[in-house]
Amino acid sequence: MTDVEDSAADQTTQPSEGGPPDVRPAPVPLLEPEQGVPPVTSTPEALAEVVRAFSAGTGPVAVDAERASGYRYGQRAYLVQLRREGAGTALIDPVGCPDLSGLGSALADTEWVLHAATQDLPCLRDIGMRPTGLFDTELAGRLAGFPRVGLGAMVEQVLGYTLEKSHSAVDWSTRPLPEPWLRYAALDVELLVELRDELEQELRRQGKLSWALEEFAAIASAPPAPPRKDPWRRTSGMHKVRRRRQLAVVRELWTTRDRIAQRRDVSPGKVIGDAAIVEAALTQPTDVRQLAGLPGFGPRMGRKQLEQWQSAVDRARGLPESELPPLGQPVTGPPPPRSWADRSPEAAARLAAARAAVSSLAEELNLPQENLITPDTVRRLCWDPPAEPTVDAVAAVLAGLGARPWQIELTVTALTGAMAATEV
């Protein structure tokens, strides 16, 4: 897990009175794994030993993965950490052992304990590890109403230990991995099962365990996310690009950069920055000399590199109008809520009432609104409500939009009331 993910996981929610207690106010630094730092598993023979040991272990298995985000192309795993009672801790190098399907099969009937599971599951699946059941300690913390749910914060609040996070954003593709990094990685799974057990008790105490189990099952059974359509549109600074020809330049430069980054196995941002792409799109240089004068294409870039970027610009400038990308993507759901008041005042009124109802209910239940029911689900319901806003009709819409049974049970009455209260 990177520090960016840990920071994102630490987004605060204000717990209501009676939320989870700060059970250990004087945290103790956790500096060394109990059994020391294990050697890195990087050969088929060593992996076979790990499979045997973890097959013979008992109880849940703690799982974590480290990627090289910001350094390498894609989101592949460069280290996998596991810990299980009776097996100890294992650190596996997916570069030397790229196929972990045997280990995945050996743990198929075991509950996996992960923190922010959706972050690590895609890269784990790529190397053959697919859990059938899991416990997500970050999501458990959210449902239990903890104000900070990053791994370090959760371990401190619940177990009374502090974890060092100074190596969270390092380049995990480095070989050999330095000893301090390996110690950090081993500590990330050292207390994960213990954290899981404490959170299970807290959720049970609050009457929320069944909610969490539904969420965990949904995560474990979710199919891989489909490829993002037009990923180049996510280039930072795109709000400045307002003409179709400029969009075409962004698309050509982004595609060229992505191809180079993939070939070199580096993060696209290390090839050329988003700001440079947007600047070139706005300027549309006509030759290499003009391109070299733009920010991001300065004197440190060689002539050959400049020519490849200028070629991308020239391709976009030469496209016929019919092949230019549209200014916006086709809308498959509701329009942005800011336009609802003009386009459909009734829908805007429904959304305001529904948001207020969800906010009040989430505060009462002491959990984040987005975990009670996703904002997108609420928007879609309010934009296209059932003809007769009965409890059963609203429940059917929520189910069709992917809401889990516990979410429907808790919100359907309030949302139905919001629909009915705004009927003309």
List its traits:
single chain, 424 residues, alpha/beta, 6-stranded mixed β-sheet, two-stranded parallel ribbon, 20 helices, 8 strands
Give the spatial strand order of the biggest sheet: 2-5-4-3-6-7
Number of strands: 8
Taking the sheet with the most strands, its summary is: 6 strands, mixed
User: What distance lies between the first and last C-alpha atoms, to the nearest angstrom?
Assistant: 50 Å
> Strand portion, in percent?
5-15%
Unreliable sequence segments = 11-18
In one word, what is the shape?
flat
Radius of gyration, whole Å: 25 Å
Q: Share of helix among residues?
A: 40-55%
The succession of helices and strands, N to C, reads: HEEHEEEHEHEHHEHHHHHHHHHHHHHH
Mean pLDDT, to the nearest integer, reads 93
Oligomer: single chain
Structural class: alpha/beta
**Helix count, DSSP H or I runs of 4 or more residues:** 20
